[in-house]
Amino acid sequence: MKKLLGCLTILFSVSLLFIGCVQSSAENPNAVPTITITSPVEGDTVQIGKNIIKVSASDYAGGQGISHYEVFVNDEFQERFDQGDTLFMTISESLIGNRISYYVIVYNLEGGMKISSVINNLYVSNLPAAPSNLTLSIFNSNQVLLQWEDNAINETNYEVWRSKGNNGSYGGTYYKRLPQDATNTTDIGLSEFVDYFYKVRAVNENGASEFSNELNTGGASGSDIPTNLIASAIGASRVILTWNDNSDNENGYVIERLNYSAGDEEFKQVGVVAPNSVEYLDEGLLSRNLYGYRVGALLTTTIAYSNTTEVETGSQDVAAPSNLVADFDFESRAIKITWSDNTDQEYGTKIERKLASDTRYSEIGSTDNDISIFYDQNFQAEVVYYYRARHVTSEGTYTNYSNIDTARAPLVAPLAPSNLLINETGTNRFLLSWTDNSNDEDGFEIWRKVSSASTFELFKTTARNVDDITISDVSRDSIFYFSVRAFKGTLYSDFTNEVVTPLLKPTNFTAVPDTSGNVKVYLTWTDNSTLETRYEIERRISGTSSFTRIAVVGENIETYTDQTSGLYRGTSYEYRLRASNDEVDSEYSAIVPVTIPY
Length: 598
Hints:
The protein is mainly β.
């Protein structure tokens, strides 16, 4: 007799009698599950090692579901499997050449049980057991990784078979041969435009096992592989992962992690996210541990893995910024972002922004320690932006993100240019220059009028960020006024100050002292202007800084004799003059020196 999980079981050759089970089906004979074995069945051949068992099982109508299974080989209990596990029986080498029997017991969550029919007359072959659960991972456009479960205990080699294209043509021999106990291999040098098919089998001196399941690259290329995987530690217990979604046919993304500090050698799945995801937050980590991550795009028959990245968690979690507020600031013409700094362990703050249509945020700037304000000046009007921020810690990790706030910049006129200047650069050529005070203008308008009594009219237009323009072929028979304003679409700034084309300055200016004993200086010049109404003459003692006007003479005059007060024998003087009218002056002439003799 044998005791099985609280049931006293008396075994006969085929039929079994159960006495004293945990739940008697006599109380409710219909409260038991059903089970049918579909493979292997009577007359089949099995191999030493693991042999997969396929069953069809379900709970009774209204039941709570299947709990687990138990496998018996030659009436001996072998192993328990939970619902969802792959069932298998393990055959030892001592049974080679013999015939065996097996059955499976299924249990539901209420304790009800059902025994399958006994499968007899299974021949144990000395061929190796077939590998199972073949998986294919794409690392880049020309490299894949194949992995499988080694179920055999008497294989001498594994054979990898490959076919180019879905035509079933694997050829007459294997593509690659591997040693016993092999569980993986890579295939490199692939073309991203070819669909490759793979299957694996075990072999020994007696022959070959059945093939594993078949997989193919699915025509997937390097474009399906998530790229630019970045892992950022958030304090001591969290890591945030971001990557580029390059596939348009993934079923989701699997996130895998290993802990180097704990001695992990294989990646373990820690999460799955929906298609088109580009971010994952891994929580509950250990402080000061080094972790490795990779992300895989789940294709129909393959996994396209990203690069592997490493990150070390910090020694402690640091408080995140809070109360983040984003709003347009009219004074600075920028979107102003402020937040509350809740820690003294930050090493600056990173500010991120995105559009509603974006899948991920992008960093747009940063601040130094204890600075809790940032101005975003690179934006488009009438567009809604989303903002968030996080601190960099003194350990080089990050805090959690702040709350998210939105802001929209209205359409406003650009700031007015200022400090408009005009300078003569050649015959009838002038340079207009101004200070550009705006960063969002589309360009500048130059307006002109003739004489102070006339009206300004649009003269020329420039592109944005221009702060000067050359005006040529200007008639010197007229006086021109200029002013400048910035524009953005149909919005206009205020005008600058006005500037006027100057009169032509006098040239060939000379100063000669009287040589007959009188205290006089004879001045001469060339009159170049046609619009002056007077000439203004100025003088100073050499070595002093300020000129004093000593005389005004009429238009078209080209000489003047200075015998005004203030002239002394033995003293040196300097003279200058300019043409003038009621609207504008010329530039000053050259300064000329003279000394009154004794």
